[in-house]
Amino acid sequence: MYTSGQAVVHPRLSVLSTSSLPSEHSSLGTASSTTRFSLPPSGSSTPVPMPTSASTLSLSKTPMTAVNLVRPNIYDRPLNKTRTSEVSLAAFTFLFSEMIQYTQKRVNGVADFERKLNTLGYRMGLKMLELHAWRTEGTSKAPKRETRFLTVLSTIGNVMWKAFFGRAMDAIQKSVTKDDEFMLIENDPAITKFISISKDMGSLSCSALTAGVVEAILDGLGFPARVTAHNVPTEANPNCTTILIKLDRSVLDREEALK
Amino acid sequence: MSHHLFLLSPTDTPIYSLAHQSTKSTAPSSGSTLSSNLPSWSTAPFSGTLTALSGAQSVGTASTQNGAPKIGAGQDRHVIQMIANASLDVIEEMMVSNSAMYLKSIDKFNEWTVSAFVTPGNMKFVLLHEAKNDEGIRSFFMEVWELYVKTAMNPFHRSDRTIRSTVFDARVRASAKKWL
Predict the structure, then answer these.
(1) Which sign, positive or negative, has the C-alpha torsion B47, B52, B56, B57?
(2) Which class would CATH give A86-258?
(3) Strand B112-118 relative to strand A171-174: parallel, antiparallel, unpaired?
(4) What is the interface size between A and B, counted as CB pairs within 8 Å?
(5) How far is CA B16 from CA A2, A33, B144, B147, B175, in A?
(6) Min CA distance, A58 vs chain B (Å)?
(7) What is the top-level taxon of the source organism (chain B) (predicted)?
(8) Which of A130, A146, A222 sits opposite B149 (nearest CB)?
(9) What is the span of the domain harbouring residue B169?
């Protein structure tokens, strides 16, 4: 096991990169034919300077500075939350819209779309969970993990959501009919504030991203579950979104045993 | 006093390991080893491993030179790895009900004591040590955790890939020197 054999690739970590190879070519082809201001035009008269000549030019002018430049190391930076480490909603919305456009080019169908957004969220959630835990427990003498499902659920809905998105979930509910289903309800999720879904997309909920975050948090803490996001528009809250958690049977059995 | 640290991903893939030779002299924990109850296996092809597993100290190059790492009984790399792996069962059993991240002295095997640290993201840090040093190990784990979180924040890091950063390695070594 400790020999450098081929590691088992976690299926959740490679969905985006592997499953969309054939379609990527066609989308890239269309992208290059349109004019984009971030790329140099293909038939332009001004030649793009070659990187080698550019670097030698700058080296001949200032030979010492290029050598002395040391990149700041990630291990030198503090992990603590500061006021400057907060990201504005505008910046996040821009990034999220790019993520959605990127994903949309590589999917067919709403279900596939949501699954990929969920995967992106999953990878975010793994990091968010670890970072959040470090910020709250990192200075503690005896750091704790959550081990009971209900405490985890309320921590996600209240403490974590407040830390990630600035406000807590509006409601946390348990399904009346099924004992393995739980719901986190947000009346007006900040991340989908500027998104309107076109008619042909039907039931798409871009909160699939946050569903992925929730899934990663639950998975990390040892509560495997399937988490999905659904639009539940009401009169007062047209953007109301429910994050539905369907727990694995093993979790329920364990909770029962721990009682 | 040697220490062995393993970082295991949620899928139990080892992503980092470190062998640390401590300079601090602490009295080794004395305990009867399994070997006293077993016959000697001198002729078997697996004799090295078997004597190592049984904890016999008298084989081959087992003598401890000053400062030099011990080779032989109970100190073989594969035996160490096996002990670390075997402790995973205990860790997984404990982490269901025990909410502490730092699980001290969860397992014993011959001269080795196993301590573990489980992060919320289900990463497991396993440390094999010979002497009791709860407070030092706790501080060590906390520093390794901080370093790990920083590594995990890197978008190019994947939780099932080995950590190859030399800075990470240097920081963990410095931390081990300080606390162990």
Answers:
(1) positive
(2) alpha beta
(3) unpaired
(4) 101
(5) 10, 46, 11, 12, 15
(6) 29
(7) Eukaryota
(8) A130
(9) 2-32+77-179
Between residues A105 and B45, which one has the greater pLDDT? A105
**What is the domain count for chain B?**
1
**CB A114 within 8 Å of CB A208:** yes
The residues with which A183 forms a beta bridge, in sequence order, are A173, A244
DSSP 8-state class, residue A172:
E
In a domain, B140, yes or no: yes
Write the ipTM.
0.76
For residue B65, being part of any structural domain is answered with: no
- The answer to whether the beta carbons of residues A242 and A157 sit under 8 Å apart is no
Region of A164 on the Ramachandran plot (φ > 0 left; ψ -120 to 50 alpha; else beta): alpha
Mean pLDDT of A212-224: 94
H or E stretch including B65?
Answer: none
Residue to mutate among A1, A99, A213, with most B CBs inside 10 A, is: A1
Give me the residue spans of the domains in chain A.
86-258
Whether B38 maps to a domain, the answer reads no
Q: What angle do CA A244, A249, A251 make, to 5 degrees?
A: 85
Average pLDDT over residues A139-157: 91
Model pLDDT for residues A155-166, shown as the tens digit of each residue: 999 999 999 988
Identify the CATH number of the domain in which residue B129 sits: 3.30.450.70
For A181, the 3-state DSSP assignment is strand
Cβ neighbours of A259 in B, within 8 Å:
none
Domain contains B48:
no
CA distance linking residue A239 with residue A186, whole number of Å: 9
